[in-house]
Design a protein that fits this description.
The complex is a heterodimer of chains A (240) and B (409). Chain A is α/β, with parallel strands linked by helices. In chain A, strands 6-7-8-3-9-10 form a 6-stranded mixed beta sheet, with helices on both faces. A 4-stranded antiparallel beta sheet of chain A has the order 2-1-4-5, with helices on one face. Chain A is globular and about 45 Å long. In chain A, 45% of the residues are buried. Chain B is of the alpha+beta class and 409 residues long. In chain B, strands 2-3-8-5-7-6 form a 6-stranded mixed β-barrel, surrounded by 4 helices. Classes of the chains: A alpha/beta (240), B alpha+beta (409). At the A-B interface, helix 2 and helix 3 of A face helix 1, helix 10, helix 11 and helix 13 of B. Bound molecules: adenosine-5'-diphosphate and magnesium ion. Magnesium ion binds next to helix 1 of chain A.
Chain lengths: 240, 409
Amino acid sequence: MAVIVNPLIVCQDMWKVYRVGDVTVQALRGVSLTIEQGEFVAIMGSSGSGKSTLMNILGCLDKPSQGHYWLDGADTGSLRSDQLAEIRNQQIGFVFQSFNLIPRTSALENAQLPLFYRGLPLRQQRALAAAALERVGLRGREEHSPTQLSGGQQQRVAIARALVATPSLLLADEPTGNLDTQSSREIMDILSALNQEGMTVILVTHENDVAACAAREVVIKDGQIQSDRVTKAKIHVAEA
Amino acid sequence: MFTWLTIVTALRILRRNRLRAGLTLLGIVIGVAAVIAMVSIGEGAKQAVQKQIASMGTNVILIWPSGTTVGGVRGAQGGAVTLTVGDAVDLKKKVHVLTDTGWYTRGAMQIVNGSQNWNCSVYGTSPSYLTIRDWSYSSGGAFTQADLDSAARVAILGQTVVENLFDHGEEPVGAAIRINNVPFRVIGVFSPKGQSAQGWDQDDVVFIPYSTAERKVLGTQFLGSVGAIAASTARSEDLETAVEDIRSVMRARHRLQGEQPDDFTIRTQVDMGKVQEGTSETLTVMLMVIASVSLLVGGIGIMNILLVSVTERTREIGIRMAVGAKRVHIMTQFLIEAMTLGVVGGFIGVLVGILAARLTTIIAGWPTIISSDAVVIAFIFSVAVGLFFGLYPANKAARLNPIEALRYE
Ligand SMILES: Nc1ncnc2c1ncn2[C@@H]1O[C@H](COP(=O)(O)OP(=O)(O)O)[C@@H](O)[C@H]1O
Ligand SMILES: [Mg+2]
């Protein structure tokens, strides 16, 4: 018997138009995309093609100018800013190219942040954040501030922050863009492992070897999806 | 939980920008300190005045010839002397609520004790005047009716006069002094009375019997003319009737017709108290206004630092929003920062204000009273100022768009 699972992400004919003075920029021009729970998707494309714009919408940080985006069955277009904040807090982990850690604040406290806004007791926040840091291999670095960490370590703190609240969706916009190959490999290992555990991972990258970790590759050009193909056969588990 | 952690965060952010926060706090600190110091000086002055008024005797009525200053004692400068001993005696007879009447005449004289000399006001009074004013003596006592009848050469000295004429430890009572070259015997010394509400030294005086003054020392414009009359009632409720009756008796004695204005002024201690209290209340209100303005300036300082902080931390706000901070969270964070500034500023301000009041007492010798009301109100006000002026920056932060905030350089 086939089990019907709701797709985690459904985008339908999404447009994003920016207006700067008299000039309008069409960053997205009719993007439709469906992503199932547990997928590992790489989004590729040249600079300025609209990848970040798409990621921001998927991460509920921004809204499309036109079209619809359903996340886990909910139409995000109809949600208020507080409801979107709650979705970001509970369902989404976001990793940025520029790390975006809060300066002069320890790794532990950075990793704690989503739990802080969830209102968990402090002790539980600390325990979960410490576990997340350990998970990304930063045990013993809890009290280091961002300036005391290397780029790769900072990005790992950012990943710890993204996964601390166990979201169903992890979005990473060029997470290795500012890193050397060694650090990049470590980051990709972590993301792969998270995907193995069932987390849906969507990743923007320029690099082919980074994209090779994913099972599906979506290429964007001038705000439109140019190609969308499965690069690895999906491994089906647990058909009991 | 959230609130507590936010307070901790706010405190840490303030500590990080210690100098800037300190400079911002300065406005609030000065405002609160000013409120507390000024109110306590005002209260101190008010209480000093009240104490002094009480010391003059509560049921006392004073009558001066019109044309003299309200203080009366500064003298009838050129004005016609219109009061006489006869007025005083007649008032006692005709106004039944009066328990007694007294009178004085006054002049500036040279007092000599051995080789020392001193110039001061000499009052020639009836013994009843001394009873009415109810002054106390640090040694010796008052002169009597017999002294008045015999125009005895006896004198009571104020503390300042004693200090200037006698060596330390020398007993003035019994000493022989000369007033305007006339020999006198000192029979008493007044307890120190301090400055009057008008600011003159009430201890720089010598009192002698009226008759002695009139015949042997001061002389008077005509026989029986006096500078002022004092009267007393048994109960303060009688003051009003007494004033009315005195007025009609005096008008009759001075043959004033219906339209003619009084040629005398009547004041009770209650009236004088009201004037004084009014003055110090105006002062307090004025000081409060000044203090409020500086609190306002402090509040604008808080708003300024928070606006700078919101701009500086735009990216941080974006990060917080990206991980799920709601508008209310961002808003609360900045409001708590603003209130923390208010609380810390208010607290330091209270301490500085109390210190300033103490120093005023120690250095300038003004009496001050730390009013707990003022402390509480100033503190609450400073927190409210922080909250009020934090609203705009906090709202500005909360309304940021997460994407734009994250992209902010
Ligand atoms: N806030 C904005 N205002 C105006 N134009 C924007 C804005 N954000 C992105 N764009 C434009 O949209 C296009 C897509 O940008 P982006 O999604 O960042 O591309 P990518 O991430 O693929 O490099 C670009 O042309 C960019 O200039
Ligand atoms: Mg981009």
